[in-house]
Amino acid sequence: MQDVASIEDLYQNLIMERARAPCHAGSLAAFDAEAEGDNPMCGDRVHVRIRRDRNRIGALSHETRGCAICISAADLMGDAVIGKSQDEIGELADAFETMIATGNTPDRPDFADLRALSGVHTYRSRHRCATLPWQALRAALGKTEHRHG
């Protein structure tokens, strides 16, 4: 069994790795909807684009300028939501926002690497950094635009 310190180190490494080299960063060539999120208090900005595949997310991209927490939250969100329906994403977003507020991680397999951000709950001023990408995604899910970039 791993000790708590090594698990925390692993999660910290994941956050920094995704902040430095996000997997879902950039712009989709074709997308169905997009939305932005802005946190004027710290300067974080997120632009999320989604492409639907039937009633599921087929692809997601983000352009995020901000702190490591915001960038990694956007990127880990991309991993978690691709292939999910809008209802499943809503449940996942609710669980993520609860985790950020309380530190309690849900016991669900689709949460995987999102647990890396559970420590943010102890820093109230950073909650918005972690939840901003999810708010932008919720806004994008409420739109249907079909655009080509």
From TrEMBL:
InterPro entries linked: NIF_FeS_clus_asmbl_NifU_N
Domain called NIF system FeS cluster assembly NifU N-terminal: residue spans: 11-129
Domain of life of the native organism: Bacteria
Gene3D superfamilies, sorted: 3.90.1010.10
NCBIfam families for this protein: SUF_scaf_2 (TIGR01994)
Name of this chain's protein: SUF system NifU family Fe-S cluster assembly protein
Organism of this sequence: Acidiphilium iwatense
